[in-house]
Design goal:
- With 182 residues, this protein is an alpha/beta fold.
- It has one domain: 3-Layer(aba) Sandwich (Uracil-DNA Glycosylase, subunit E).
- It has a five-stranded mixed beta sheet.
- Strand 4 and strand 5 form a beta hairpin.
- Helix 2 crosses helix 7.
- The longest helix has 18 residues.
- Bound molecules: uracil (URA) and iron/sulfur cluster (SF4).
- The site of iron/sulfur cluster has 14 residues, from helix 3.
Length: 182
């Protein structure tokens, strides 16, 4: 059943609604060059109400600017799960499947020709990958009428250091070739 996106900011379909401060819906233009999809809001996002406004987000959009040539303002940015899991734990399978239809609604209205999923959880939820991100990053996949790719989550790069950043940069250089210029 289709959901009405007007109801997303007050959604209580899963238990994350009990511990969140706010639903982090997403931000950016309709018809963007790129749709960027993370896992779930962290503390900064839960407080600020926008995705990727903390440390991960700063690294992410630095890399996207340098390698893809797009600014944050040119991207629609969201997460597969819209409310912060307590202590930033990984969302459960139930939380993922309960929240996922919201993202499907967003795909319909945002209409991005290119989608980037960040990390294992988002890559599996968005593209249906069974293998882990170590094997799926950098692959180009067809998604609806557009195309998509997964790369590592910037939080993994913050933990893993320069070698992870280099892999992300290489993936993003492949992504750059897929940007549809109007
Ligand atoms: N990590 C995510 O996956 N999403 C955010 O919005 C912030 C951190
Ligand atoms: Fe609703 Fe998703 Fe938030 Fe759960 S995580 S309450 S399904 S918006």
């Amino acid at each position: 059943m289709a959901r009405d996106l007007a109801e997303l900011p007050t959604c209580t379909r899963c238990a994350l609604s009990l511990t969140r401060q706010r639903v982090v819906v997403g931000s950016g233009p309709m018809g963007p060059a790129l749709m960027v999809i993370g896992e779930a809001p962290g503390r900064d996002e839960d407080e600020g109400g926008e995705p990727f406004i903390g440390r991960s987000g700063r690294l992410l959009f630095q890399l996207i600017a340098e390698e893809v040539g797009l600014s944050r303002q040119e991207c629609f940015v969201t997460n597969v799960v819209k409310c912060r899991p307590p202590a930033n734990r990984t969302p459960t399978r139930d939380e993922l499947s309960t929240c996922r239809p919201w993202l499907s609604e967003q795909f319909q209205v945002v209409r991005a020709p290119l989608v980037l999923a960040l990390g294992n959880t988002a890559a599996r939820s968005v593209f249906g990958f069974e293998k882990g991100i170590g094997q799926t990053h950098g692959q180009i996949v067809q998604l609806g009428g557009g195309r998509g790719m997964a790369t590592y989550h910037p939080a993994a790069a913050l933990r893993g250091g320069p070698s992870v950043v280099e892999v992300m940069r290489a993936d993003l250089r492949i992504l750059k070739n897929l940007v549809v210029t109007p």
